[in-house]
Amino acid sequence: MQLEATLNKYFGYSSFRPGQKEVIEQLVKGQDVIALLPTGMGKSLCYQLPGYIFEAPVLIISPLLSLMQDQVTQMKQNGEKRVIAINSFLTTEQKQNALNYLHQYRFIFISPEMLLQAHVQNRLSQMALSLIVIDEAHCISQWGFDFRPDYLRIGEVFDRENRPPILALSATATDKVLGDVEKYLKMKTPYKYIHSVDRPNIHLGKRFFRDQEDKLQWILQHVQDTEGPGIIYTQSRSKTESISERLLQLGISVASYHAGKDALDRQFIQQQFIEGSLDWIVATNSFGMGVNKQDVRQVIHFSIPSNVASYMQEIGRAGRDGEHALAIILYTDGDEDVARMLATDDLPTEHHIERYAQYISQNENVKNMIQNGEISETALRVLDYWMVQLPREQVAHILTEMKREKLLEIDEMMGIVRTEKCMRERIVHYFGQTLASKPENCCEGCGLTFSDIIRPREKDKASYRPITWRERIESILLGNE
Asked: Which residues form the Helicase ATP-binding domain (predicted)?
């Protein structure tokens, strides 16, 4: 089979990017594959092209609704009609209709939680699938153990002899994460394609401040003085709101984005950013995964990320067009203490284990722990998974280890913040790789000059206030558009 001819026929490209052909060749042979390809390297083509080669549908398990919807929209815009996302955006009637005709689709997107519903599994078991794709596969390790345990159950759904090949895709993963992916997906001696995590066109900066107000004043001035588009990451919803409000007052085209906003508002804000109506987004880490915006010039971390993998995922949203981009970490003494608190806040404690056991012994629904204010929904989800899997004593050990690892990950991130040597070298080494070469203006430790990377902002841009989807609809109904 001439893969280049198929590539040209369906996508109009004459050659593959590094890693794409190697991955597709193995999938065509029926081999399980783990592919580590940096953001912007065309991971989605690794399953889209096989979708046109194979006869049966491709199932893509995706972590976020916004990511799923964005990928479906892009494929439809490129002319693919046989694509669907099974998620909470569909009504009950729409879901049932979709399941009835599921075999007619070429690409089926679904979340881990939806995949584990009995009626969905039953429908999939009646179908022949050509390929199972786990997009953003690092989430199995990064989220599965302590946030969304349903990720750990994906492998159980497809644990049968005659299953199709599994493709696990990610942009960043350590050897440990890759091991978790292989184990929990129950992969069969997978072929591994590991590309360097380094993105030479992203230049790594950092700034240190006396206090939070000093940091805030710097970012307000920096955004006024330098070009976007850009993303500012914070660790709290309230901080995203306050920073975006201050920037709006300065005439910056900006919006805040976090999980507390209405789902349609989030989708609308994301679309405004992609289309260029917004120059900046101030967001929690719920924003950005899978957002296909090529020209992001800056990613700024107002708070330190909880781990190096998250940091690399987030700065990887910059410079997808291959042009120079800037990633800046802002640090004030004590930021790491806040990061430690947030990283471990939703982990169940030994007290929770004891109370869980009491509820079970009294034949009481453990979900009442949430209603009684004893535990958060996330913590119960984690606890419920492990209490079913292991004896009580082992659960306590698992949770202690999870907390210890989270604190160590923050220490690793602080090592990058505090190092006076090359940041890029340290990051690449964290992923078990070796840095082949350094770009000019590599990082803070190598003598980075921001003005060599980022152009000044055009000062004559008009003031802007982002509109919600509701206001947009009202405007259309009133005939203003």
From this structure: 24-191
The confidence score (pLDDT) of residue 268 equals: 86
Instruction: Give the domains, in start order, of the chain with CATH numbers.
Output: 3-194 (3.40.50.300), 202-338+412-475 (3.40.50.300), 339-391 (no CATH)
Q: Which residues contact 384 (CB under 8 A, 6 or more apart)?
A: 149, 356, 366
Closest CA to 146 of 365, 404, 339, 371: 404
* Sole residue written with tokens 């509820």: 359
Q: How far apart (Å, rounded) are the C-alpha atoms in residues 455 and 34?
A: 38
**Mean pLDDT to the nearest integer, 143-161:** 82
Residue at 175: amino acid letter = D
Do 192 and 432 touch, CB atoms closer than 8 A? no
Are 382 and 147 contacting, i.e. CB atoms less than 8 angstroms apart?
yes
End-to-end CA distance of the chain: give it in Å, rounded. Answer: 51
Q: What is the pTM of this model?
A: 0.86
Highest mean pLDDT among 147-156, 289-298, 404-413, 471-480: 404-413
List the one residue out of 86, 45, 83 whose CA is nearest residue 65.
86
Residues 33-86: tens digit of each pLDDT: 999 998 777 889 999 999 999 989 999 998 877 778 778 888 898 889 999 999
Residue 321 phi, psi (nearest 5): -85, 0
Closest CA to 234 of 246, 226, 252, 250: 246
Q: Compare 364 and 463 and report the one with higher pLDDT.
A: 364
DSSP letters spanning 56-67: SPEEEE-S-HHH
Residues 6+ apart with CB under 8 A from 243: 216, 219, 232, 234, 256, 282, 302
344 HSE (CA, 13 A, CB side)? 18
Q: Which two tokens stand for residue 72?
A: 């479906």
Once rounded to an integer, what is the mean pLDDT over residues 251-268? 87
Cβ burial, residue 123 (10 Å; 0-12/13-18/19+):
middle
Residues 304, 413: contact at Cβ < 8 Å? yes
**Closest CA relative to residue 76, chosen from 107, 55, 47, 50:** 107
Q: Which residues lie closer than 8 Å to 432 by C-beta, 6 or more apart?
A: 174, 175
Question: What is the Cα–Cα distance from 272 to 280, expressed in whole angstroms?
Answer: 10
Number of H helices, E strands in the chain: 21, 13
Helices (H), 175-327: 175-184, 212-225, 237-249, 263-275, 308-315
Cβ pair 67, 89 in contact under 8 A: no
- pLDDT for position 139: 85
Which DSSP category does 455 fall into? P
SS3 content of the chain, % helix, strand, coil (to 5): 45, 15, 40
